[in-house]
Please model this.
Amino acid sequence: MAKYQSFIGLEVHIHLLTKTKVFCRCRSAFGDEPNTNVCPVCLGYPGVLPTLNIESMRMGCMVARSLHCTIPERTWFERKQYFYPDMTKNYQISQFASPLGQNGYMELEGRSPSGESRLPKKKVRIKECHLEEDAGKMIHTGTVSLLDYNRAGVSLLEIVTEPDMETGEEAELFIQELRRIVRYLGVCDGNMEEGSLRADANVSINLPGKGLGRKVEIKNLNSSRFVRLGLNYEIRRQGVALDEGKTIVQETRLWNENRDETMPMRQKENAQDYRYFPEPDLPVFCPDEAFRTSVDIALVELPRARMRRLMEEYGLQQEQAELICDEKEGADYFEAAVSAAGADKQELSKKENTEAKHSAALQIANWFLSDIKHILGREGLALKDITSFRLNPRRLAALAVMAGAGRITGKLAKQTMELVIAEDREPEEIVKANNWEQLTDPAQIAETVKAVFAAEEKTVTELRALKAEGDETKEKRRRTLAAYLVGKVIAATGGRADPKIAGQQVDSLL
Ligand SMILES: [Zn+2]
Model:
């Protein structure tokens, strides 16, 4: 057991994909020409009035609901006062006393991002989700600092957890799961490099049973990997300091990705330093029945629920289901293909139908997670482009049905896949045109076997002698020779002969 107990909490900021900013009508977009998406409201001119973008509120509530939060009867905004050049108003409109989402949780489950083991299941409590405006961006170049206010006023949702995590691995898993959830909901692109999902972490350690220690906040964690590395570094650093009898300074530290360590940045402000007070220019928001319904109907099946359903419905392994559900587009593609492949057949019993469905699903899952992902990578296609992929779900299903019925071998199925993509044609057509349909007629295969026997007289003679002898010590030699002949038969049919039937025919004609 570790000597110290650690407590990790996260504050994750996500950019909501609203078309316009949260309190004005300016366009909300990443990468536009600097200072083109600005107006008197988001630049904080005197005398202007903010108005709430209801879409921001709706998307925020969708995330809150997906994290099992309660949405209060009344929610409002506060001013958080501080001076910084990226915020010309000198305050940020945020939420403090009544955030839009309260007291939720997320179930953590899955493989440790850094290693082979699965982490134990865990419930992480969500303290709150609150809506606020983002600040502008400062770009430091040489001796000058440039300011771009396009980002000032963009809808930002902050998700705050309780300090329920204990390791960097758990925190990384939390961020990955949250990223999946907001992408499934379509409310955030989850792009950490572009800053549309940003995480700050706080961590304290203490002797077991002594409660929380003194909290250190870590900023500048712009990938989920840095979250893990930064936290694990900080837990070690604090442990060494306590071992040496030092006290931990309550402060904010920056993660330095070049040196793989955290460095002091500033002593932490307290909430009272911000002098929060209710924003006088915005009314209290009371979600009515119509608003709550609009949130409900926008909710989707979330990745973890979908994963469990895929395991149950199609008999997939947990690992497979997790990989398939990693992105919604991938899971949609998989399910569309399985459903195209598996209409219930009247002549089959319920059990047989289930088995057929499971076997088609397994085939499609295997192809999807290996060959198709490989092809997408090679063609430079992202999963979100999969709707324009030539190997569409219907075509993939046709291939799986052919392979499942033994009409085509696995190897030729993959070659067909490549041709579907190269030539944009139907799999059936390709298989017919190339005469790739598997040979299963015993009589036809027997003809080929006879021809092979004639050409391989020496091998056949040796094999017949071995068979007559029946010496068990020579079994291995016998098998090698038989396999050699089967290989010749398959080759002679251009890879089309069913290997099982070819084997039976070689045996029977010996
Ligand atoms: Zn504006």
Remarks:
- The chain is about 40% helix and 20% strand.
- The first strand starts at residue 5 and ends at 15.
